[in-house]
Amino acid sequence: MVTRTMLTGLTGLTSLTTLALTAPTGPLAPLEWGGGPLTVKALPRVVYTAHRGGALEVPENSMSGLVAAYERGTAEVIDVDTRMLRDGTLVAMHDATLDRTTTSTGPVRALTRREWRDVRLRPGRALPGHWRAERPPTVAEVLDRFGGQVVLMLEAKDPRSLRKLGALIRARGLTRSVFVNSNEPAVALRAHRMGLLAQLWRTKKQMLGDRPERWAGFVDVLDVDYKARDRDLVRAVNSGVPRVWAHTVTTPKQRDRALRLGCNGVITDAPGLLARTPVKGGKAARAAELQRWWPVD
Length: 297
Hints:
8-stranded parallel β-barrel, 10 helices
């Protein structure tokens, strides 16, 4: 059985109703009801993505942080950065070096999988709660733990890793459950041609000259900088790319502006904060947030 909370009384947006939905059975039952992996078809119309697991709330790219993000249920997509070690192993890590987030130093790419076992994350002191030092996971471990249970977003920090990343995703039957993210349109096109879900992120500066309509045929998510000008965000929204999500949002005010301008998702370091803070900023933003309670057709 699936429990879904829906807003009722659309005029006042004041009432919450919890519905218990019984899963359909038989050959026509969609995968989202339990027969296979959760796919992007289960995503609501407006999506919250936990950036690095929610880096203001949990240790970024850590297994314990990702578990917390998943169990809290404040985001429908969980984002993880990926890098490649010297022996080709893919691991969860944002930076090119170990210095900022671990007790070790030096380039990530210099290590082997065996050496990776000795790396320990250093949780930020400002994080709420208590977190232990732990080994950062490999991408295979992330896919094995969460694949098919929640939609994942994996950023390929090293474009050379795309073929290996695709192989890990395909081997687990997750091609409709994992977005592969890059800042390079050529990498997004390669991912699409490999049968993967392609995501392309762009900076405020890049968006000044972007022609996002050129990417509509192969980009599944256009990941735009919330700091971009209104006109650039609106151009992205009207590009024909089906999903336009704003990054990296940390406050309700930033979220509300992105929704007001037509984005249908946000990528956030603070999914818990956004989930408990009502949307403000006009009818368009409130209507967009209301649509979170209904899945896309």
